[in-house]
């Protein structure tokens, strides 16, 4: 069981507004409400603590983390999951409205069968977002079955997008069920 905050008397002076609309639900960028230098500081403290307190190791002085030139769009690979049971926010549930539950996104932390439908991800540079959105739109328009994580059935399973430094892309579309005709038709329709 988890508790939810009902009132914040005052936010920490270290806190900043996260840029990602999915922050706090997705789990991919758990530190985005801190400035980048503060993220590095706390991550370094966590690593040292793991060695000393948990590992009971006597370690030499640790050099500071070398910061990346990029705070965002630094990943070269992302894996998205198709799901027929997307995560609904508290507001969506309380509205009582019916929602399209098909999603293409990331698993909710500690919930294997719930996937957050991602609108924009700040981890991988474009055209990653455009590719993900286009493939999802194509799947919706062609009524392709999104994967059912609980019952382990469906057609579309995963989408992996890998970007290289020279702007080359690799897109891997993973199918759960073997349907050669539908798979071939899907790829032909999408690729053109």
| Class based on secondary structure composition and strand pairing | alpha+beta
* N/C terminus separation: 49 Å
Query: How would a crystallographer describe the biggest sheet?
Result: 5 strands, antiparallel
Which descriptor suits the 3D outline?
A: globular
Radius of gyration, whole Å: 20 Å
Helix fraction, binned, reads 25-40%
On the 0 to 100 scale, the average pLDDT is 89
Specify the CATH class of the largest domain.
Mainly Beta
What is the fold-level CATH name, i.e. the topology of the largest domain?
Answer: OB fold (Dihydrolipoamide Acetyltransferase, E2P)
Helices and strands, in order, run as HEHEEHEEH
Low-confidence stretches: none
Number of strands: 5
CATH-derived architecture of the largest domain: Beta Barrel
State the strand order across the main sheet.
Answer: 3-2-1-4-5
How many domains would you count in the coordinates? 2
H/I helix tally: 4
- Portion in strands: 15-25%
């Amino acid at each position: 069981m988890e508790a939810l905050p009902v009132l914040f008397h005052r936010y920490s002076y270290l806190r900043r507004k996260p840029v990602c609309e999915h922050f706090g639900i997705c789990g991919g960028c758990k530190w985005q409400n801190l400035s980048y230098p503060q993220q590095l500081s706390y991550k370094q403290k966590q690593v040292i603590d793991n060695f000393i307190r948990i590992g009971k190791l006597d370690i030499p002085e640790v050099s500071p983390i070398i910061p990346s030139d990029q705070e965002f769009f630094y990943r070269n690979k992302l894996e998205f999951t198709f799901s027929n049971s997307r995560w609904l926010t508290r507001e969506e549930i309380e509205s009582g409205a019916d929602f399209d539950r098909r999603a293409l996104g990331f698993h909710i932390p500690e919930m294997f069968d719930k996937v957050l439908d991602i609108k924009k991800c700040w981890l991988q540079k474009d055209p990653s977002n455009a590719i993900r959105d286009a493939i999802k739109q194509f799947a919706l328009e062609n009524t392709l079955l999104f994967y059912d994580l609980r019952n382990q059935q469906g057609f579309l399973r995963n989408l992996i997008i890998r970007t290289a430094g020279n702007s080359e892309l690799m897109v891997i579309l993973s199918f759960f069920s073997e349907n050669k005709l539908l798979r071939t038709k899907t790829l032909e329709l999408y690729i053109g």
